[in-house]
Amino acid sequence: MAVFFEAQTTPDGKMTITGWRTKYVKANGEFRTVMHGSNASAAFADDATAFNGTSSPVYVKTSEGTFVKASNSNERRSMSPAAPGSPEEMQKLFHSHSFLKNHGQFVRMDKVAGLDVYVLRGVNQENPNYWNETSHSPLTGSSPLRLVTHEPDGTLFILEAVKVEFKDVPDNLNDDIIALPNTGKLGDNNELPKKQN
Fold first, then answer.
1. In the chain, which residue ranges form alpha helices assigned H by DSSP?
2. Most exposed: 16, 120, 126, 180, by fewest CB within 10 Å?
3. Distance CA 28, CA 90 (A)
4. Which tens digits make up the pLDDT trace of 137-185?
5. Residue 47 has what DSSP assignment?
6. CATH code of the domain containing 122
7. Could you give the CA distance from residue 194 to residue 69 in angstroms, rounded to a whole number?
8. Inside any domain, residue 197
9. Pairing mode, strands 182-185 and 76-81
10. Residue 86 confidence (pLDDT)
């Protein structure tokens, strides 16, 4: 389980925290992210309802792909299909110090939430004028503990873990979301999930 803040930093260095989220990850890479808006205390609460019937927006990754459930919604929308290849093999790679250190995008070591991380730098696939840094710990696998998007004007968008706790998550982590009707792809009809404030 990890607690993250979302922030924006202006070119002059002023950081504004814009939201909080809690992420639960299974050993095979499946995850559940519960969005808390500006409610930091909810992000740290480790509420058991995060696994069942939460009214907050939820993002999940399953063997079928990645989905979003909007706030107080009874449906899910597809964000992306499952990636080709074995998720277990990908997890194995990102748990390897050697793989991360020898990765073609490796630029430096750092610390996030008290854990040593390998920082990888790459061009943003959606807009090549932007570049990203992702920070991975071999203890947490392919799920980055920090993601920083750099804009050409010096603005930064940051998603960073401030707390990481290693504990069991339920086998049925995303069963409630999988059980919801899949009503299409995110972006169909220009609908976006509602954020909880």
1. 40-44, 87-94, 97-101, 175-178
2. 126
3. 9
4. 999 998 999 999 999 999 999 999 999 999 888 888 899 889 999 888 8
5. -
6. 2.50.20
7. 9
8. no
9. parallel
10. 65
Predicted confidence at residue 42, as pLDDT, reads: 86
Answer yes or no: is 196 within a domain: no
Sheet holding 182-185, edge to edge: 106-112, 115-123, 131-136, 146-150, 156-164, 2-9, 15-25, 31-37, 58-62, 65-69, 76-81, 182-185
The string of pLDDT tens digits covering residues 1-43 is 999 999 999 999 999 999 999 999 988 888 999 999 898 888 8
Amino acid, res. 183: T
Provide, rounded to the nearest whole percent, the portion of the chain with pLDDT above 90: 54
pTM of the prediction?
A: 0.85
The total number of structural domains in the chain stands at: 1
Residue 54, phi-psi category: left (phi > 0), alpha (psi -120 to 50), beta (remainder)? beta
Check if the beta carbon of residue 190 is closer than 8 Å to that of residue 77.
no
Amino acid at 5: F
Are 90 and 73 contacting, i.e. CB atoms less than 8 angstroms apart?
no
User: How far, in Å, CA of 156 to CA of 153, rounded?
Assistant: 9
Phi, psi of 148 (to 5 degrees): -120, 125
Single-letter residue type at 128: P
Q: What is the pLDDT of residue 45?
A: 86
